[in-house]
Amino acid sequence: MSALAVTEPAGRLESVSTGSALELRGITKMFGALAAIADVTMTVQSGERRAVLGSNGAGKTTLFNCVTGDFLPTSGTIRLFGEDVTTFPAHERVRRGLRRTYQISLLFGGLTVADNVYLACRGVSRGRFSLLRPRRGDPLLHRAEELIDAVNLSESAGTLVAELSYGQQRQLEIALALAGAPRLILFDEPAAGLSPTERAELIRILTSLPGHIGYVIIEHDMDVALRVAESVTMMHNGRVFKEGTPEEIENDPEVQALYLGGGHG
């Protein structure tokens, strides 16, 4: 698998090398009388790789939904690369460089891998509303090929997505998230349902992403999460419980008692 080439337009990346990518201040989301998340405050720096961990029901996916604009928070503020996007619709956050994968694959099963990735590239380009078929020299076709290679699916480029293994579909989702000029990607349980070999491939893909692309990963597989993240936020009952490095979280007695059953091998 080759490293992902960065071929975005000049001037797009200079502003993302420093400062915060994501700032959450007092984010609360109520569903009736139930607080799915409460007073969540977190800062993710540009280029940072953060894991958000916690048991089922801890509020992780609800937090992602608020960040992406699928849900609007009941209270609190969300800043994306310094801009307040708390009330912005999802597509405006995508335009600012936010991407997201979901727990359930959202792919065009009747199209090939190459078609799926090309459409993703086309969807975030200026010519996304054009009805013209792509020509052989279309730069988006070349970009799609780069992304397919980056997630190690070149040999399956002409394969229908419905014929891919589950692990390959998850790899394809990462390629789709890389379309355009992503600055921050939210990965929602990318290792769920993967075999040990597929998890190892996922780790290779995530750790080989360009340094300017930060990500936040929700993951139940601690072995994956602690290997691909440089910082960790633990959630419990909709609140931030602990923050630290992977080593600090792994060795924290309270974390071990609450999440790891007293130890982690």
UniProtKB/TrEMBL annotation:
- What Pfam family does this protein match (any one)? ABC_tran
Write one Gene Ontology MF term: ATP binding
Going by the UniProt record, its keywords in alphabetical order are: ATP-binding, Nucleotide-binding, Transport
Q: Which residues belong to any copy of the ABC transporter domain?
A: 22-262
Q: What Gene3D superfamilies does the record tag this protein with?
A: P-loop containing nucleotide triphosphate hydrolases
Q: What is this protein called?
A: ABC transporter ATP-binding protein
Query: Which InterPro entries did the record assign?
Result: AAA+_ATPase (IPR003593), ABC_AA/LPS_Transport (IPR051120), ABC_transporter-like_ATP-bd (IPR003439), BCA_ABC_TP_C (IPR032823), P-loop_NTPase (IPR027417)
| Organism in which the protein naturally occurs | Hoeflea poritis
